[in-house]
Amino acid sequence: MKRAHPDKMKTSLRADDLIFKLLDAFEKNKELLRKAGWIVTDVNSYEWWDNLKTADEILISSILVQMTKWEIVKKTIEKLRELNLNRLDKIAELSENEIEELIKGINFYKTKARRLKKLAVIVKEKGLENLLKDEKALKDIEGIGDETAEALQLFVANLPVFPRSTYASRILSRLLGEEISKQEAKKIVENTIHDDVYKLKLLHAGIVTIGKTYCFSKPKCNSCIFKDLCAYYKHVVKS
Ligand code: SF4
């Protein structure tokens, strides 16, 4: 059941109108997204994911990034690329010890070497396309939770899926002035945007950018590009 904020907090804006306003703002603020590591480009490009070049690089980064700074992950991917080991079929043939040596510097590198090896073997056996379409199999892989799985489906397989995320839940809750869960945020977005993969990518990239730039637990509303739209800013910060 939805936990509502006090009625006076709610915005008069409808959720679908809000989604279109956000999309419009993100389209006009691509530079802000770029600074947060999201490259708004051709819908089918892998470069949305901070300029990574291949599906395999995105999958490898999604295992390495947990509890690790993105800059370190990106350097590790570049090193793998130079060694021509930025490919899951090649990683599947390496031993866990060899993978550990390659990814030292990443937090929990031993656990991640094991996870990477498992992922590489599964992809080799099942095929990447089949795996990404099989949501249950994807989410059963160690180290891949709901958000990562759904982000891979969207950004690698171009499936019309909006990833559940804490950022989407927090930001839509604050903008609309009512508590919205991750699942509710996903449903609102998918019911509004349907199967427009470009808009789904843009919205996810934009929302993560706002979450990492302004909308922290203690939000920096005065700098936020959405303060004029935001119920939280209007009723909590300004009042
Ligand atoms: S104005 Fe404040 S609460 Fe609203 S989205 Fe921006 S940072 Fe979050």
TrEMBL record:
Stretches assigned to the HhH-GPD domain: 64-213
Any one Gene Ontology BP term: base-excision repair
InterPro entries per the UniProt record, alphabetical: DNA_glycosylase (IPR011257), HhH-GPD_domain (IPR003265), HhH_base_excis_C (IPR023170)
Top-level taxon of origin: Archaea
Alphabetically ordered keywords of this record: 4Fe-4S, Endonuclease, Hydrolase, Iron, Iron-sulfur, Metal-binding, Nuclease
A Pfam family: HhH-GPD
KW ATP-binding (keyword) present: no
GO molecular function, one term: metal ion binding
CDD domains, per the entry: ENDO3c (cd00056)
Protein name per Swiss-Prot or TrEMBL: DNA endonuclease III
